[in-house]
Amino acid sequence: MPTIHLTKHLRRVAPERPVTVEGDTLGAALDAYFAVAPAARPYVLDDQGRLRRHVAVFVDGELLTDKTNLALHVGARSEIYVMQALSGG
Questions:
Q1: For strand 79-84 and strand 3-6, is the pairing parallel, antiparallel, or unpaired?
Q2: Which residue from 7, 13, 52, 70 has the highest number of Cβ atoms inside 10 Å of its Cβ?
């Protein structure tokens, strides 16, 4: 089962520790996570269910570059990190 980690700045709306969830796609894993931590959903997804612009997701150490690809397969031992994306100049 994949494990989802949220960064420290989201700890006020998410569990302090990583959460192991069921799901074989990124979207299914996130849905399972939001069932445990519903207050985290609006910080990660927009009102259309897409990843927010300023959110970065890493799956097994690889940055998700296509933020529309919530159908991305995740394995039983996948590590998913959700964090604030830095931008600016």
A1: parallel
A2: 70
Q: Domain span at residue 54?
A: 3-84
Report pTM: 0.90
Name the residue type at position 4. Answer: I
Give, in degrees to the nearest 5, the angle at Cα 82 between 33 and 65.
Answer: 120
Cβ(82)–Cβ(7) below 8 Å: yes
Q: For residue 75, is it within any domain? A: yes
Q: In this structure, is residue 19 part of a structural domain?
A: yes
The residue behind tokens 């931590």 is 37
Alpha-carbon span 18 to 20, nearest angstrom? 7
CATH code for the domain in which residue 34 is found: 3.10.20.30
Count: domains in the chain: 1
